[in-house]
Each structure stands twice: as structure tokens, then as C-alpha cells.
């Protein structure tokens, strides 16, 4: 027999096996009624077959006559006998769909299948026309329920949900609305906000970490207010060069960014040692400022506009403590900034619906699903997290707060003992080994 043929034989078998697997997965996708279309996508992770799908969803689950839209979902198929991780992304999914190196932490830990779901009204999952009345937490949770219901007949192992930030909140909401859909939930750094300006973040930031660190941050903010008159020409030129358009004067945007700076520093765990000396020249302080707090965040057109719509409707957000800076800022220009600065006038009279907050809070007060809640100690979003469940004598709900951790807190960067405890509990519940 030809030696070259013998060398090539294992490769041929591998190709045939992969082709058969692809064919089997595609056969499954074709059989799922909700899947409108799909395409195979390539990732560096060769252990899974990846497909980007468009799922048909009702705009209003309580009223089919309202019409439908297509929601983008990525499947990473590892095996029908492996667990499934549903990533409840809170925003657009482009970064996961297009990045060949994308890998979600829980999927990697459990060597699981992954269903990554882009949130409705973001990027390729935006209805046409875009009727904002259907962007609600409840409607969004029904999207996830429909997807899980469609795939569950094929994947018989354990199911978990996970998400980061707004995706973590989505995982929290989802478990409350459809508790039987999942075996375990692992939300990361997810808030549960009670109002458009929740109110808990301001007091959190007055107590976070050490007084010395807080004083350094406040000193920088004060310096930027003191130098505002000198900074505004630099700021205006920068915004003009970038083409940013705002709904309010740039002087108000400047004030908002100085206030936002404190939140941003703690959210991302940026060391105060990175702050330039306060006697630095204007350009040094300014360059650092726009690097840390980009003005595009408050621009009239931005990539997360759909989030701000939902924030004023039923998701909630945060406000700023202006008391330490009352001599520099006009309270009327700052209070209620979300509607005036980040949203068009059509949302001016929208009233926040706190029923989702109340429903979710009641659910976790009265129930005890298997859940691992991950938070960072200095992350301002922890202020509005559901960490209070630690004190409710829950057997299954477990809260882990990484010492000194920020919004970047993950299982694998936890302290060793905390990480090992989480992994042991996760394996006991999900049975992935």
C-alpha cells in the first residue's frame, strides 16, 4: 500500500468525521421551526462547530399580531451529551460573532455547548421599523425562553445561563421569569436597578476602598473643574475633530464627564497611581481625561442607544453625587441627565416601570434557585447588585464578591480558595466532569 496514502488516511478520517458532525448539526438546525436561516462560521476553537443563526421572534409575545423580528444567535456545538451555556448578552453580539478567538469563561470551564444570544433591539437583532414599545425586560426574557425551548429537545445534559454586566442582569431577570428553563445561573457583575437614577451608587462611592484613594480621585475631579475655563477650548476642539454631536452644550458634557470619571475609575479598577500629578500642564491632564472618559459616551448617536431607552423604561441606571462640586456645576443641568442628554425628546415623558424590579426582588426573596452570583468589591454596580441575598440564609444562592475586584471580576481571577469553591459547586450542580 502506498506510504503516502497511509499517512493521509488519519487526516481523511478526521475530515469525514467533521463533515458528518456538521451535517448532523445542520440537520438539527433545519428541523427547528424558529430558525429562519443559519451559516457556518469559523473560529480558532476547533472543538466546536459554530453557526450564526437568525431566530424568528414575536415582537410582542402577548400579541402575535404585532409582528416578528429576527434575533441573532450563535451556536457553538460541542456535543449533544455536553452541558449547554446560554449567554444572555445584554447588548450587541458582533464582538462574539466576528472575533475568531472569542471564548466565554463558563463554556471553557465546563467544555460545554454555547448558545450566545444577542439582545433584542441591538445591532442585527433590531426590528424594522424600530418600535420602542416592545423593548421591555419581559419581552426580552421571552426571547431567551423561546430559544431554550427550541434547543432543549436536542441537548439532554444540564443547562446554565451566564452574562456579564447588563448580560448578568439579564441572567438574573431570566431565572426569575422562567426558573424551570435552567439548572444553574451564573450572572457576573449584574445590577438590579430600582429607578432611572437608582440612588445607591452615590453612597457606595463615598465609602469604597480607602479614603486616601477616594481623595486622590476627588482631587483630580476638583482640579478638572478648577481648570474648566482653560480646558474648554481643548475639549471643544477635540469633540469637533471627532465629529461628536450632543443634545446639550459641550460645557454640560464636560461637567458630566468629570462626574462620570469617579464611577469609571472604580468600575474598571483603574489604579489611582495612573492619575497624573495635579500640577501637570493642561494638555497632560486633558489627554488623560479623554482617555479615561470619552465624550462619545454622551454623544447623540452612540452604539448603545437602545440600552438608554431601556434604562428609562424598566432597566434603570445611576445618578451622580454633585454635592462635593456644587460650586462648579448647575444641578438642573445634571439631574435627569439620562433623558435630556442621552435620549431624543420622544422619551421625555416616559415614566419608569419598577414592576420588573419588584417582581425579581420578590422572586429571589421567596425562592432559592441554584445560582452563583459574581461581583467585584469596588465595582459601583455592586451597589445595586443582589448581594443582599447573602444574608437570607439561602442554601443554593451563593454570592461571591472578589476582594478589590472591579467590573472585570471573573471566576478564574478570583482568589484561589474562592475560585476553587465556585468550581467545585459548579461541577456538583452541572456534572460536567
- Fourth CATH level, the homologous superfamily of the largest domain: Alpha/Beta hydrolase fold, catalytic domain
**Protein structure class:** alpha/beta
* Unreliable spans: none
The CATH topology annotation of the largest domain reads as: Rossmann fold
- Going across the biggest sheet, name each strand in turn: 1-2-3-5-4-6-7-8-9
Instruction: Determine the N-to-C terminus distance.
Output: 42 Å
Mean pLDDT across every amino acid position: 95
Detailed description of the structure:
With 433 residues, the protein is an alpha/beta fold. The chain folds into 2 domains: 3-194 and 356-430, 3-Layer(aba) Sandwich (Rossmann fold), CATH 3.40.50.1820; 200-347, no CATH class. 42% of the residues lie in helices and 14% in strands. The protein contains 15 helices and 9 strands. It has helices spanning 3-31, 94-98, 105-110, 137-151, 166-177, 200-205, 211-226, 228-242, 250-267, 282-292, 305-315, 331-334, 337-342, 355-366, 416-430, and strands at 35-41, 49-58, 68-77, 84-88, 113-117, 159-164, 184-188, 371-376, 397-402. Strands 1-2-3-5-4-6-7-8-9 form a 9-stranded mixed β-sheet, with helices on both faces.
Give me a quick take on this structure.
With 433 residues, the protein is α/β, with parallel strands linked by helices.
